[in-house]
Design brief:
Number of helices: 14
Number of domains: 2
CATH class of the largest domain: Alpha Beta
Order of helices and strands: EHEEHHEHHHEHEHEEHEHEHEHHHEEEE
Strand content: 15-25%
Distance between the termini: 18 Å
Helix content: 25-40%
Oligomer: single chain
Strand order of the largest sheet: 5-4-6-8-1-9-15-14-10-11
CATH architecture of the largest domain: 3-Layer(aba) Sandwich
Radius of gyration: 20 Å
Length: 417
């Protein structure tokens, strides 16, 4: 089943900017995924008493910001500015000639403001909590729209900007928001994706530790182990991915290169628990995205799984995937978190971007650190430890799920006229 779509409703990806723990552009990121290189390192954070595995980005914030701007702004803002500028450059937009009121910025986040609040309280403690030492930059740093707003300041964008709070489903949610705004005609270009500064707040590590869900391993590169029987929790990571989205006729008009076409998406809610997922709702979300794309499960070539290396999370998603795909051995299921950890608000978009080059090279990157598959997951289609060459890649389905039971699914198609 394939659904005809009006040309103006066809939304394509024409530019990509990213920073991940194992790459600062798509080419570097993809190369390290195919070669099995992890970006997880030992990381010192406040109060835990020992280093923890974390995904740390190494991009140059001064490429697009002055030192004063970095000091005044936020880490998530720096990540967003780097990725947005890289995406605009990659899309080869004639930026001085672009009407900036027709550009929208839609960035998914898991949380925002914790880093600045923790840091400022820590500094205040050195002065006996005298609030005269409190930063006057606190409010603009911690408002929820900060990362997207910092992008508008950097690129002089006067169109709408939003951050989309969607827990760990936020990367997909930012892209979905961009698609919707383009289809509504509210903007002509969307800078859409997700960012995360999570490793800079000790609270996220402490909270996962108190849940018994913080990964530990003597070798940090082996700490993130989705679907593996010996996994012991989440590796927290920072990162960002932002795409330039355009309506297909506009992209054609300027001769843009096209990475892929967004043909289906869905979001729904479990409505069952603060933390524990529900595979039934995840399966429903995938089915709705497939229906909107006008395809069936048998058409999907690669599934980019969400699995975070938590016991219940991995098992529930496996049940959802088995419910949808059954024993279909043609589909390749992989996981990017095994390389970089869980980049929270950026997770969904980074995991999608790492798979997009498969449209050209027909290779599904592996899930690393999968030494002993948990039999309760039992996915026979997992790409384990070595990349898998496929006959062809036409459709990629990208899962991204989050706390409070928020689910998002995005389907991208290899572009064809």
């Amino acid at each position: 089943m394939h659904t005809a779509r009006d040309e103006g409703d066809r939304i394509v990806i024409t530019g990509i900017g990213l920073t991940a723990p194992n790459g600062n552009n798509l080419e570097e990121f993809r190369s390290n995924l195919l070669e099995g290189r992890s970006g997880v390192v030992s990381f010192e954070t406040r109060y835990l008493g020992h280093p923890v595995p974390a995904g740390v980005c190494r991009f140059d914030p001064l490429r697009y910001q002055k030192r004063k701007e970095v000091r005044r702004g936020t880490r998530s803002g720096s990540i967003a500015i780097y990725c947005a500028n890289e995406a605009v450059r990659d899309a080869e937009l004639n930026w001085p000639q672009i009407p900036k009121n027709r550009v929208g910025v839609y960035i998914g986040i898991t949380e925002h403001g914790n880093v600045e609040t923790e840091n400022e309280i820590y500094e205040l403690s050195k002065f006996d909590y005298d609030i005269s030492f409190w930063s006057h930059h606190h409010n603009p740093r911690t408002v929820a729209n900060n990362p997207a707003g910092e992008v508008t300041l950097s690129l002089q964008i006067t169109g709408p900007h939003l951050t989309v709070g969607a827990a760990c489903a936020a990367g997909n949610a930012g892209l979905i928001q961009g698609v919707q705004m383009l289809r509504l005609g509210e903007v002509d270009w969307a800078l859409a994706g997700g960012v995360s500064e999570s490793i800079h707040t000790f609270g996220i590590f402490a909270s996962f530790k108190s849940q018994g869900a913080l990964a530990l391993h003597e070798d940090p590169t082996k700490a993130s182990r989705p679907f593996d029987a010996d996994r012991n929790g989440i590796v927290v990571a920072e990162g960002g991915g932002i795409c330039v989205l355009e309506r297909l006729p506009d992209a054609r008009r300027r001769g843009a290169k096209i990475y892929g076409e967004i043909v289906g998406y869905a979001m729904n809610s479990d409505a069952t628990d603060f933390v524990l997922p529900d595979w039934r709702r995840q399966a429903e979300c995938m089915r709705l995205a497939l229906e909107r794309a006008g395809i069936g499960p048998e058409d999907v070539d690669i599934v980019s799984s969400h699995a975070t290396a938590t016991e219940q999370g991995d098992i529930e998603e496996s049940l959802a995937l088995k419910d949808l795909f059954g024993d279909n051995g043609r589909v390749a299921i992989n996981n990017t978190k095994s390389f970089i950890g869980h980049a929270m608000g950026a997770a969904g978009v980074l995991e999608l971007l790492g798979n997009l080059p498969a449209f050209q090279d027909s290779v599904a990157h592996a899930t690393i650190n999968l030494d002993r598959l948990d039999p309760r997951c039992g996915l026979t289609q997992l790409v384990a430890n070595r990349p898998r060459r496929l006959d062809d890649v036409t459709y990629i389905l990208n899962n991204s799920f989050g706390m409070l039971g928020i689910n998002s699914v995005l389907i991208v198609k290899k572009f064809a006229e």
